[in-house]
C-alpha cells in the first residue's frame, strides 16, 4: 500500500514517544542533580595524577619525564622537573614534578597523555562538574588538585586499575629478582677472587 512505510515509521515513533513517559526501560533521563546515573567504567573527562600510599607528595607515580607534556595536542600540560631526587613512598629516590599544571579549559580529553605515560601515573577522571566562576585560574589545576589516591582510581575504573596494579607488581617482582641475581653473581665473583691464589712472580734471569 502506498505510504505503508511512512505509517509504520510514525507508529514506531509514537510508541517510543509514549513509552518514554512510563516504560522504565525507556526512561533515559533522571532528575539531576537529585538523582545521578553512575558513570560507566570507560567514561573519561579530564586527567588526574595517581599516587600510592597516603602522602600525595611522596607517593606520586609521576617522575616528571615530560612525555605527556610533549605529546599533548592542545599543549595544556605544563611540567617543571624538581632539581633533586626525593624518596618515594617506598624510599626509592625518584625525580618528581616541582610543577604539574593542566589547563582543563584547553584539554580536549583525548587521553593521549594516558596512553604515552610509561609509569601509569596519569589517568582519566569521570568527574564532569567543574564549573567555576573563574574561567582562567579556576580551571588551571595544579598537582595538588590533580592528585588522587590509587583507591580512587580503583573506584572509578576498577577493571583497568586492577590490571595496572597486576602489571606493576609483575614488573617490580621481575626487577627485584634481577637485582638479587646480580647481587649474588657479584658476591660469588668477589668470593672467587679472594680465594684465588696469587700468581707466581716471574723469576729473575741468572747470568751465565
Summarize the structure.
The protein is an alpha+beta fold and 208 residues long. The chain is built from 6 helices and 8 strands. The protein has a domain at 47-155: Alpha-Beta Plaits (2-Layer Sandwich), CATH 3.30.70.
How is the topology of this model organized?
Layout: H1 4-19, E1 47-51, H2 67-71, E2 77-81, E3 86-87, E4 93-94, E5 97-103, H3 112-116, E6 122-124, E7 140-141, H4 143-146, E8 147-149, H5 150-156, H6 158-195
Helix pairs in contact: 5-6
CATH architecture assignment name of the domain at 47-155: 2-Layer Sandwich
What is the helical fraction, as a range of percent? 25-40%
Shape: elongated
Can you tell me the CATH topology of the domain at 47-155? Answer: Alpha-Beta Plaits
Alpha plus pi helix count: 6
> What is the CATH top level name of the domain at 47-155?
Alpha Beta
Strand order of the largest sheet: 6-1-8
Rg, please? 30 Å
SS-based class: alpha+beta
